[in-house]
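> call design_seq(struct)
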């Protein structure tokens, strides 16, 4: 009995998905934008600030009806952070040393965000009364998750030390920059929660211009070293894109 019920559930699920896909409106497109990335972590005497990078790639979108849809992107994405730490040491001989260390964390990922999409037309015009309309402008809200695979990571370190004697004289020593690439303990897998909102504009019967704002919150640690501080990716993304309808117009379609 249980096996029979499972079989019916599988058949129903496949039938439902096939029905949705058959009636879905399919779009292909491209996106490009900026990342305002950072790391969520806590290290003594260290401040982590945003790092600006780029993102871009392709997008595949399904509209199941006028309101609901799904979307998946494949993006090249630059993540990371700018870290700065300041340590003051009393040398005990009447001098004080202040060491400022700056680290540029540069991480490059292939990211695959997957979203459920809620579309709200805010300006529509009838083409054929009661059958087909088009939306000149619409807003959309998206929620889902993202998967990321790291294809490059490096940390560039610069350091300078200011030493002040008892008379107030200061000497500055600047150390050569160093770059550590390909950290063996770096976790190549990133997974997190993604949310977005945006607006789209009708450019032609098949094409739309999209403007999106997204937030990514990683839930996987950046390091596999159990003794390293917990650090998680965070990013605000701003994207400009174009999507093009490649399927025929459905009767329900707001284009």
């Amino acid at each position: 009995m249980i096996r029979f019920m499972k079989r019916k559930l599988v058949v129903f699920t496949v039938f439902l998905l096939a029905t949705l896909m058959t009636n879905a409106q399919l779009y292909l497109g491209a996106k490009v934008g900026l990342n305002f990335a950072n790391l969520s972590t806590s290290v003594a005497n260290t401040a982590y600030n945003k790092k600006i990078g780029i993102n871009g790639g392709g997008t595949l979108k399904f509209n199941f009806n006028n309101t609901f849809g799904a979307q998946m992107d494949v993006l090249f994405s630059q993540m990371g952070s700018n870290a700065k730490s300041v340590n003051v040491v009393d040398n005990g001989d009447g001098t004080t040393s202040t060491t400022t260390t700056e680290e540029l964390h540069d991480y490059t990922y292939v990211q695959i965000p997957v979203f459920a999409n809620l579309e709200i037309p805010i300006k529509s015009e009838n083409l054929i009364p009661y059958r087909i309309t088009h939306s000149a402008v619409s807003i959309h809200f998206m929620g889902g998750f993202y998967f990321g695979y790291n294809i490059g990571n490096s940390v560039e370190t610069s350091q300078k030390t200011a030493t002040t004697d008892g008379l107030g004289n200061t000497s500055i020593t600047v150390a050569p920059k160093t770059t550590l690439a390909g950290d063996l303990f770096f976790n190549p897998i990133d997974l997190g929660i993604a949310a977005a909102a945006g607006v789209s504009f009708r450019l032609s019967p098949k094409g739309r211009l999209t403007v999106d704002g997204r937030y990514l919150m990683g839930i996987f640690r950046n390091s596999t070293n159990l003794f390293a501080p917990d650090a998680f990716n965070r990013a605000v993304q701003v994207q400009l894109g174009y999507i093009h309808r490649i399927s025929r117009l459905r009767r329900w379609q707001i284009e």
